[in-house]
Amino acid sequence: MPEPSSRRALGGPGVALVVVYALLALAATGRSLVQIFTEFDNAPLAYALSALAAVVYLLATWCLIRGGRWVRVGRWACTFELVGVLVVGAASFLVPEAFPAKTVWSHFGQGYGLVPLVLPVLGLLWFRKVEREAVAAEQVTDSAEQVTDSAEQATHPAEAPVQDDPRPDAPVA
Amino acid sequence: MKEPLTYVVVGLAFLLFLAASYYALRDRLIDDKLLGLAALVELGLLVMLVIGLVGIGNITDTTEKATFVAYLISLPVIPIGTSLLTIKEKSRWAMGSMAIGAFAVAVMVLRLQQIWNAHA
């Protein structure tokens, strides 16, 4: 089955974005597992944040790969990451005693070459691009096929025999 | 970790980084030469994985030990992942991804050696 062109997040620069995201997800997951299993009591807040960050990075990586309906989830994940890195980054400077241990987001992600600060912005820009292209593609499809509502098709099944896949963005299994 | 092996692997990974970057810039796609280089990096990482797991007892600090194992196990995943990507997705961006992955491998291997030196 050929890849549906609309709302496909992976492709072009998206590939590089996925790899960087996957690497960061790997780093964050590894670090948080190590921290939680060896010294959770030392800094529960910092380590819980690390784990949360890791999960969100994994989620964003998944959304980038799948595209389609995951684009919306991906935008939330990226927004969350951006807010997280800004809030935790600022907090780690203002109230350092609350963050005795490093997290991915401490000091705006300095320990990771500021990648955690830049990545959500790139992610959001990329998802916006994907979404816009999808909307443009859907408008073309809509004007070509006036009837798109699946409920209408259900009431007149004989009228739309060829439209077996009304949603081009349906996820590829 | 045997230091010479570390430097060989770091050297190979850096070479892969440069080559993949060059390919990405010139818009050239993956070929046997580059895949061979990636395979050499992978081989080195697997040898490090075995040596590292055998000598894991030398590292006494739990946190350091956990980090060490996490690095050891994640490292071999990277060249395989990026290589598959360059084969599946024929674009300069996939080549760029291979370059990013290779750079990450070089950095992570150096960090591995750092932990090892501090304890063995």
What would you say this structure looks like, in words?
The complex is a heterodimer of chains A (173) and B (120). Chain A is mainly α and 173 residues long. Helix content of chain A is 64%, strand content 0%. Chain A is built from five helices and no strands. Chain A has helices at 13-39, 44-66, 70-94, 115-144, 150-155. In chain A, helix 2 runs antiparallel to helix 3 (70-94). Chain A is elongated. In chain A, 35% of the residues are buried. By secondary structure, chain B is mainly α. In chain B, 82% of the residues lie in helices and 0% in strands. Chain B has five helices and no strands. Chain B has helices at residues 3-25, 32-54, 62-74, 77-88, 92-119. The model of chain B has no long low-confidence stretch (mean pLDDT 90). Chain A binds chain B through residues 10-16, 18-20, 22-23, 26, 30-31, 33-35, 37-39, and chain B through 62-63, 66-67, 70-71, 74, 77-78, 81-82, 85, 89, 91, 93-94, 96-97, 100-101, 104.
CATH architecture heading of chain B: Up-down Bundle
Q: Could you give the count of β-strands of chain A?
A: 0
Poorly predicted segments of chain A? 1-7
Mean pLDDT of chain B: 90
> CATH topology of chain B, which one?
Four Helix Bundle (Hemerythrin (Met), subunit A)
Q: Count of helices of chain A?
A: 5
Average residue pLDDT of chain A: 77
Relative strand content of chain B: under 5%
Structure at a glance:
The complex is a heterodimer of chains A (173) and B (120). Chain A has 173 residues and is mainly α.
SSE layout and pairing:
The complex is a heterodimer of chains A (173) and B (120).
Chain A: H1 13-39, H2 44-66, H3 70-94, H4 115-144, H5 150-155
Helix pairs in contact in A: 1-2, 1-4, 2-3, 3-4
Chain B: H1 3-25, H2 32-54, H3 62-74, H4 77-88, H5 92-119
Helix pairs in contact in B: 1-2, 1-5, 2-3, 3-5, 4-5
Task: Provide the descriptors you would attach to this structure in a database record.
heterodimer, A: 173 residues, mainly alpha, elongated, disordered N terminus, B: 120 residues, Four Helix Bundle (Hemerythrin (Met), subunit A), 5 helices, 0% strand
